[in-house]
Structures are given as structure tokens and as C-alpha cells.
Amino acid sequence: MKKVMIKTVNLTKKYGDFTAVKDLNLEVYEGEFFCLLGPNGAGKTTTFLMLLGLTRPTHGSAWIDDCDVIRNPLEARKRVGFVPEVPGLYDDLTAKENLIFTAGLNGIPKGVREKKIKEFLKKVDLEEWADVKVGKFSRGMKQRLAIADALIKEPKVLILDEPTAGIDPKGSEEMLSFLESLSRNESITILMSSHLLHHVEKYGDRIAIMKRGEIIATGSLASLIKEENVIELELESVDEALVSEINALADVREVEKKGNKLIIVAQRDVRKEIFEVASREGRKIIGVRLAPSLERIYVRYFKEEEIR
């Protein structure tokens, strides 16, 4: 069984009467790429600040690699690298100088700094930009440098807050692919927040959906989509009468019409009943498939939230 690298028990943060995070219970394993999914204001950043020992919980407990974050925040912080949504880099320093500064703060001896800096700049594909001032970097380049900056102390855990925000699709894929390689090849535990469904769907080993400070669902993508029966039905013709009849079936939650296709969300597999309705109404079925997705699950939990 893999080691638990991040653990929280009833972790809670209140600001006056407002509860930002409520009774958070979480376990993230060694080498896992774990994604925290939710809209802005869900409590993701507050959770990270508590895990980093940068804000004290109202109550509850948290550990990073068996180190109690609340009792020993400085020791816990040595074991984790953090990449905020807006990297704290110095624009008037070069990429190399930024990493030299971070290496010094982390007590890395001068004798090994040069080798480490060259190694991590190469890992994030910025070796040729080592002596260029960061103020000239694109958003994506700054994020890659921020990852190198977080990795310079060789942490066992890497926490990233919306790391692909403001980065073009190609740059986002390259960054996420690199993070995936860290978890797969170097057993670094990745905890990443995002509100971008396709990123979470593609890269997350497990996903936790967070809403108003609480985790409302957690598991692998496969386990989450098992809970959602989504049927995509294509017919020769579709009218409102047919939509209404299918919508009236027991356990059908909603029916969406897209041309001659129907997207049916149900609490169980209702294909047999749908076939009977189509046959009774004399409608020819062209195709049918089960089509669950993370987006459908997200919609179920966030009816009133914007999906980005």
C-alpha cells in the first residue's frame, strides 16, 4: 500500500461567521496526481494555505509526509514545494538568479547550487533562457520557472494553485505532461487545483470536487462516472412529444435535445425503456451509447455555477 503523503482530518477555516473550508478529510498518496476541482471561491486556495502552514486552521489537523503542519509548520514546509497562481518571481533578476536566491533561502550549499539550477532549468526547458531577465518571459515561461523554483529543494510533495491559468493550450499541455512525469517517474506527489474540466479529466489519478468549502465527491474518474448514467441517443427524427415521454420515465433526471440527438441523464441505465418508447412511437434509432463524462458530473453538483 502506498504511503499517505498529504492527510487532513476535519480541517476547517472560518473568517468570522464565514466558513471558507469545512471539515476537510483528505488523503493523497505518494506519486499520485490528485486534482482539486471547483469554481473560484470553493475553498481550494485556503486549503493550500493551511497545508503550507501559512494560515492557521480554526480546528482540525493536517500532515505532510507524516509531519504535523500545525505543530511544525517550518519542518512541514521543507517537504513541500508550492506554485501559486501568480508566481512570486523577481522580474529584474534572470531565471538563474531567481533560482540562486531560492536555493540560498533553502540552505542549499553553494557547491551544489550550480549543478541543481542547471538541472532544473533543463527539466522545465528554460536552460537557454538562464541569463535572461524574467520580466521578458511569457506567462507560460514564468510558470515553468516557478515549478523549477519549487523543485529546487527537491520536495516530496508539489502543490500547485491553478498553474495553467492564462497559459495557451499548447503551453498548458506541456506543463501538465511535465507534472505527470514527475509523479510517474520520480514519485513526487502532485496536488493541483483547477476549474478546467478537460485538464482534470486527462491528468488526474483521483479527483475531489469542492463546493463552498466542502468536498462533495471524490474518487477516480472511472469511479465518479459510474454514478452517472448518461445516454446519447440519435434518432431519425425528434420532437417535443418524444422528449416529454422519455423525460417522464422513472429515474430519468433530464433530457437535452441537440438536433436529432438526445442526451439523457438518469439514475440508472434506462436504455430498455427508451427503446420501448421509440418503438411505440415508430421512431427509428440510428445509434445509442453510454456517454458519461466529468462535465456531466460537474453539472450535477453545480447547477448554478459557471462551467469554464
Notes on the protein architecture:
The structure is a single chain. The chain has two domains: 4-220, Rossmann fold; 229-291, Alpha-Beta Plaits (2-Layer Sandwich), CATH 3.30.70.100. The protein contains eleven helices and 14 strands. The chain has helices spanning 44-51, 73-78, 95-105, 110-123, 139-151, 169-186, 197-203, 221-225, 240-247, 271-280, 294-301; strands at residues 4-15, 18-29, 33-37, 59-64, 67-68, 80-83, 157-161, 189-194, 206-211, 214-219, 229-235, 252-258, 261-266, 285-290. The strands form three sheets. It has a six-stranded mixed β-sheet, with helices on both faces. It has a four-stranded antiparallel β-sheet with strand order 2-1-4-5. Strand 7, helix 6 and strand 8 form a beta-alpha-beta unit.
Instruction: Output the structural class.
Output: alpha/beta
Just give the CATH class of the largest domain.
Answer: Alpha Beta
Tell me roughly what share of residues is in helical segments: 25-40%
**How many DSSP E strands?**
14
Strand content range = 25-35%
Oligomer: single chain
Main sheet: strands, sense, barrel: 6 strands, mixed
Helical region count? 11
Give the topology string: H per helix, E per strand. EEEHEEHEHHHEHEHEEHEHEEHEH
| End-to-end C-alpha gap | 36 Å
Low-confidence stretches: 304-308
Shape annotation: elongated
CATH homologous superfamily identity of the largest domain? P-loop containing nucleotide triphosphate hydrolases
Output mean pLDDT. 89
Strand order of the biggest β-sheet: 6-7-8-3-9-10
Annotated CATH architecture of the largest domain: 3-Layer(aba) Sandwich
Number of domains: 2
Which fold name is given in CATH as the topology of the largest domain?
A: Rossmann fold
Determine Rg (CA atoms, Å): 23 Å
